[in-house]
Design brief:
The chain is mostly helical. It has one domain. 33% of the residues lie in helices and 0% in strands. The chain contains five helices and no strands. It is globular, with a radius of gyration of 16 Å. 5% of the residues are buried. The model has no long low-confidence stretch (mean pLDDT 85).
């Protein structure tokens, strides 16, 4: 990926990046398989099954430093240049959002 980013002169143009979540994780230097902290936005713990739909606030990821929370390499792009992929929002993230909503509130009954 580093060679590809150099070939398209990413350092010169600093484009916004929108892609598959795995590609974004790769560009940000995250571990690719069997990760505990796989989200590039927050410190969501993928192995804490009991908290997945009950815990609503996960702390924001503070840094992308190699060796901490499944970060393997230096990021190739800045976190501020990442756009969330709309396809994943439509297909999966909204489903999880609705599952995590409080079912007693008016917003849930509106849906």
């Amino acid at each position: 990926m580093k060679i590809l980013m150099e070939a398209i002169n990413y350092d010169k143009f600093k484009w916004q990046i929108c892609g598959d979540l795995k590609i974004i994780a790769l560009l940000l230097g995250l571990q690719q398989a069997f990760t505990k902290y796989c989200c590039f936005i927050c410190e969501w713990d993928s192995r804490a099954w009991s908290l997945h739909y009950s815990r609503k606030d996960w702390p924001a990821r503070k840094s992308l430093e190699p060796g901490i929370m499944n970060v393997e390499n230096q990021p190739l792009v800045e976190l501020s240049k990442i756009l969330l992929p709309s396809m994943h929002l439509k297909l999966g993230l909204m489903k999880n959002f609705v599952k995590a909503m409080n079912q007693d509130e008016a917003a849930f009954t509106y849906l």
